[in-house]
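Hello,

I think I submitted the 2NL job twice by accident. Can you confirm which output corresponds to this input? Input:
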Amino acid sequence: MMDTVGITDVRKSFDDEIANVSSVDELQQLKVAFLGKKGKVTGLMKSMKDLSKEERPEYGAKVNEVRTHITEAIDNRSKVLEEAALEAKLREDTIDVTLPGRTFTLGSPHPLSRTVEDIEDFFLGLGYEIAEGYEVETDYYNFEALNLPKSHPARDMQDTFYISEETLLRTHTSPVQARTMESRKGQGPVKIICPGKVYRRDSDDATHSHQFTQIEGLVVDRGIHMSDLKGTLELFAREIFGAEREIRLRPSYFPFTEPSVEVDISCFKCKGAGCNVCKGTGWIEILGAGMVHPNVLEMAGFDPEIYSGFAFGMGPDRIAMLKYGIEDIRHFYTNDLRFINQFKATEDGGVTNESI
Ligand code: 2NL
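Support: Only one job matched these inputs. Its output is below.
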């Protein structure tokens, strides 16, 4: 029969050559040489036209058999070579786990945020709710409802960023308290603190900022007395500035409270002896407070014959400056990393100033 020798030769030469193949590339070349358009198997197929009709089926079957043999051999070899290549790559790509890792910068709570959170935690522990409101307020809630009528001289002291005649950037967080009281429709108790940003027209310097934070507190119920105010603020002073602190109340004036007081704490640095922090007096002023003015209660819908209350207001900026020894209020807002980085995170999520 014609040319079965040719078929045998092709098969033999393939078997010889594949035995020497050692890479995926070489295998690919071999595949082209035998199965490609101009390959040897394709050549065998083409020569079928020279055979007689009777000879063709058997010849074709034999060529197909060789083609199957070659295809399978190439597939098998391909798998073996790919696996070997993968293993070699895995061997080469080992990682040196002893190399030092990259360090990255850990953030820490901003000392002002931390101070606000500490104060919030203390009052939450006494059962207060946290109330928030608007930074853009109406003249009514910012002044009028707090016993500051248009003619009141206190409006000069709190020179304000007006947006229009009736709207302004709030100068204190008191409007939140006025709104909260009003929403309770004359029914006590009200027991809230209001933290937030406030705005006043001021020339910025080491101790003044046109934007700062405030936390005000308000308790309204039947039978609230000055002694409740005093006890609450004494606990507060000891929580924030240390268990040995004493407080001192001095008479003062606010339009929204009567009577009004300034509250001092005994100096945490010199324990009352006199130093640079307390300017030699042994006392540090930390907040203002008083009994809610009957006009304020009445405007918010509470009967001052039945209800009484106390209120207080403090500046967390100043408290943080005292606690962490910060000499300039502008540090809180200029975001200089040299400032921020002084306050390292502590294990309880707080901050310490290592330079104090
Ligand atoms: C201060 C003084 C104070 C209040 C704020 C207040 C609010 C209402 C009613 C009555 Cl709705 N009082 N707030 C009272 C006394 C003092 O702040 O020196 N803050 C930095």
